[in-house]
Amino acid sequence: MKKLALLICTTFVVFSCKDGKKEAIENNDSNDTISSIHIEPTQEDVGLWSGVFVADSVDYEKGDNWSIRNRISIIIQKINNDNTVEGYSVSAGNIRPFKGDLVKEGNSRYVMANEPGDHKYDGTFKFNISENDDSIYGTWISKRKDLPVLSRKFSLKKTEFIYNPKNILVQPKYGADEEYADEYDNIDWVNSKKEKYDEMDGEEYFIYVNRAASDEIYKINGSTQKLTEKQLKNLHKLDLEIIRNTIYARHGYTFANRGARQFFDNVNWYVPLYANVEDKLSPTEKKNIALLKRFEKYATDNYQQYGR
Hints:
Blueprint: E1 3-4, E2 15-16, E3 47-58, E4 69-79, E5 84-91, E6 94-105, E7 108-114, E8 123-129, E9 135-142, E10 149-158, E11 161-162, E12 173-174, E13 180-181, E14 193-200, E15 203-211, H1 229-232, H2 237-250, H3 258-261, H4 283-296, E16 303-304
Antiparallel strand pairs: 1-11, 2-15, 3-4, 3-10, 4-5, 5-6, 6-7, 7-8, 8-9, 9-10, 12-13, 14-15, 15-16
């Protein structure tokens, strides 16, 4: 086992083609990333914190190609003698360095740090570090005002990255005794399709439909076993994609594709760290990925309407 120890609703949507009115949904263009520089964590790093990165201020008129929630990891590499700070963040396929200052006010400490500004998604971080270093919380503000997301907020827990081949997706439960399963957890909300619903008085009406994965995504593990054609032949295309992407998620791969990462951004064991994990895959995982890709070419999905 590889270990890196770090010290410190789509509700019922109908619209008419004649008046052009429709309800906004997330853009189907799921690649909202930029090129990343190559940085990897080391044993000398000060700390790693990871959690959810939530859109806090949004200009909806600037477009809908954005995500409400992403998962983010913040790594502080150095705190120098003059209290300057160096580190980087990992989120949505982007690995971006930052530099700034550690400011101490009484018992409080916070970091003001800037990303370089040479890419469209760069911004400024301001976050507090808890007294015992177990969490950081704060905001990120975009350097650009022409993008939909102007700021994000986060509250991250200190963690360590441990590759565990047994990690698997678990269907969320709710209720006092967790007796109800989240029926919408396995739905692809990003890649919606528009279908004609009705025609009346010369007007055409449409709805948005989505594809859903089966419960097999919670059962089949492509890291611990050699997958067989018998296991895969009756699965939906989305099933195959998620099973394959879960292999990459276990290794800390940061997904650029919104359609892929929507299934992992709320998963507690998922810690995005790397833009490329090909050299970290086991022989079994490599064979399974090849088999899954082969079946994905010919698999299909059933689309239907879901409400949430």
